[in-house]
Amino acid sequence: MLPPSLTSWPLRESLSREGVSGARLWIGRSVRLLVVAGLTWSTVAGPHFRGWALVAALAGVAATLVVFRAFFRVTRDRLLGPSVGLLFVLEAAAFGFSFAGARLPAIVLWCACAITAMERLPLAAGVLCSSAALAAYAVMNTDGWLTTTTTTAGLALAGYVIRLDAEARGNAQRLLAQERAARKAEAESAALAERGRIAREIHDVLAHSLSAQLVHLEAVRQLIQRSPDLEADRAQLLERVVACRGMAREGLDGTREALSALRGELTPVEDFLRRLAATEGARLDVTGAPRVLPAEAGLAVRRVAQEALTNVRKHAPGARVSVRLDYGADEVGLEVRDDGGHGRAPELSTLSASGSGYGLLGMRERAELLGGTLESGPDEEGFVVRLRVPA
């Protein structure tokens, strides 16, 4: 059984004009046009063809060109039987030209068959077909054994070199196509990752600011609905509206910060946590040696702190909250802990279901994307969220 290297076809890219430069295509077409013109002229100008014989000879040249074109097509489709059959038809046509006295067209046709067989067929079949064409040329040539031997060896070498060149071009085209596909997949993956990042930013900003506004708006609604005298509750209503306006301003600032984060422009983590803790009435402790965090790690700390404090506001109103930022040797940690609060206010009874419900899931996903961990759950008194990310 022959090895695959002898029975495998050249690459499809090698059998097509893909990757061939415009100048090379123009040169190839010019050479083929000159060969056809030379064959036609030698047939017309030869002394052997006159009258109907000339018409038959020109028809033979045209039929040969048609068969050659069909040979190129079937080899491009990798059909071995039709390819070898058409090649032997061309070699038989060369014998016909030789017996009819058209020696030059016969020689050109044998040489063309030898070269194209080596270039476009599997190597084993190409060697056999090329050898048959060169043997026919050697038998019918009368220029002397030295000239015949030299020409035969040169044609065999030329066919093999052309085959190697075509295979190199085909490999280059295949590698280029694979690289383009890899770049396209990489671009699509980067686009999906960026979409996920933007979606998380939108969720985190909206969940934090809108849920805070919803708390105060719900309280205002409850006061208006149950109060017989709105003037008596004017101070409470005004306090809630002012707080709601503050939350809206905070949401606007958070949106601006999210846009800055998407552009890679972030304020220091400690400054952000101090402002957030002051707004939420939480205590902030910082341990370890402060340093500048990578953008993604700093963004994860910000968003987890926001989400954890939002959950405290929604599920444990009035709870005392402590926030601790810990700078480790090769990581940064964040812990948000509450004491469970003192019960839910009546106006907040329906707020635990507000939001999208993907807060903890989003925090955990954000941590895992960075190779970190996030733990959340009840402790002795209340609820605790712990984040660890490499930094």
Describe the SSE topology:
Elements lengths: L3 H4 L14 H24 L6 H25 L3 H20 L3 H18 L2 H18 L4 H82 L7 H29 L6 H12 L2 E5 L7 H21 L5 E7 L3 E8 L20 H11 L3 E6 L4 E8 L1
Parallel strand pairs: 1-2
Antiparallel strand pairs: 2-3, 3-5, 4-5
Cα distance spanning the termini:
60 Å
Biggest sheet, spatial arrangement of strands: 1-2-3-5-4
Sheet having the most strands: 5 strands, mixed
In N-to-C order, the SSE pattern is HHHHHHHHHEHEEHEE
**How would you describe the shape?**
rod-shaped
Unreliable residue stretches = 344-358
Percent of residues in β-strands: 5-15%
Q: Give the integer mean of the pLDDT values.
A: 77
What's the β-strand tally? 5
How many distinct helices?
A: 11
| Radius of gyration computed on alpha carbons | 41 Å
Structural classification: alpha+beta
Q: Give the fraction of residues assigned to helices.
A: 55-70%
